[in-house]
Automatic annotation (TrEMBL):
PANTHER family, per the entry: SET DOMAIN-CONTAINING PROTEIN 5
Official protein name in the record: SET domain-containing protein
InterPro entries the record matches: SET_dom, SET_dom_sf, SET_domain_protein, TPR-like_helical_dom_sf
PROSITE patterns reported for this sequence: SET
Domain SET positions: 10-162
Classification via Pfam families: SET (PF00856)
Gene3D superfamilies according to UniProt: SET domain, Tetratricopeptide repeat domain
Top-rank lineage group of the source organism: Eukaryota
Amino acid sequence: MIDKHGFQWPPVTYHVQHSTGKGLGVFAAHDLDVGDVILRETPPIIITPSAYIREKSYPMAEITKLVRKEFEALPPIQQEEIMSLTYHGTAVEMETMDRLGIIFRTNAYNTGSNIGLFPKIARINHSCRPNASYYWSEKLNKRIVFVSQKTRKGEEIFVSYIPLLMTQEHRQRRLDRYGFQCTCNACAQERSAKAASDERRVTLSQAFNDFEPQLTLTPPKTQKGRQQAHKNAKASLQLLEVVQQEQLVDYYAKAYRIAAFSHARIEDWEPAVIWANKGYELKYIEDPDSWSTQEMHNLTSNFIANWENELQRKSQQQNWR
Ligand SMILES: C[S@@+](CC[C@H](N)C(=O)[O-])C[C@H]1O[C@@H](n2cnc3c(N)ncnc32)[C@H](O)[C@@H]1O
């Protein structure tokens, strides 16, 4: 629709066009900044797996039946859009499942406790170093795709289909179910750069796990505990460097949260506030209504209060001298 000022409404943020070696892809229609929303989409098909399905990891025969029922209720134009999506099935799946079931398997996303198909979002290709991310908004009943790295007009938009803290070999194994050999800029690097990237991703995975039990605000009680907490604060800054070197924007908020907690534990309030606030800003972009956004908001306020108290204490001490 063109509004009274001659502008397209809603504004066009992307085009679907050919992507070399990847079929169709989604491309930026103009320069996009971190946090810009590319797409918001309500799933025309959404299924609720039974408890049995969730535990036994997706028995496709049952899913296909649920999907078919929803599909039959859609208007022909939506059915056509869905049937035009790409699909990839194993030899067994091609034998035992119909095309709709395989389309759903190739393109659907987990959506809270359900699984949804988003035909427009399904055109976005994968990268192991993506420039976009997404979340499911229960409130809006939509999946929202937003830019996580500055993207220039005409550049392709990529999300990740898989967790990224793994070696390339491991990632490729996960991607095999989609039927393609990944040639993203992380996978297509020359051998030594790829080895360095693998090492960073494995280090990050290990470090995120190791930090998890130490993310508490209780100050250490012993001398040894205090020494360890100081070491952790230093290590949290190294972790931030590694995640930035690897440009894994989907993991920045997690690293900021670790740096915030680690500095709060040693009562170094200024960096604690800075990292908590950075984490909050990213979490807010990711999903303003999520529990983890609220957590980062509360931590930031709490650390600011502690920092103010500390500054007040210091200025009183100076006045007494
Ligand atoms: C969800 S669809 C994405 C849109 C698809 N390119 C299309 O034309 O509709 C997933 C399929 O896109 C292709 N694809 C996605 N990311 C790719 C990548 N990094 N390299 C090669 N092919 C990719 C694969 O064929 C994959 O099965």
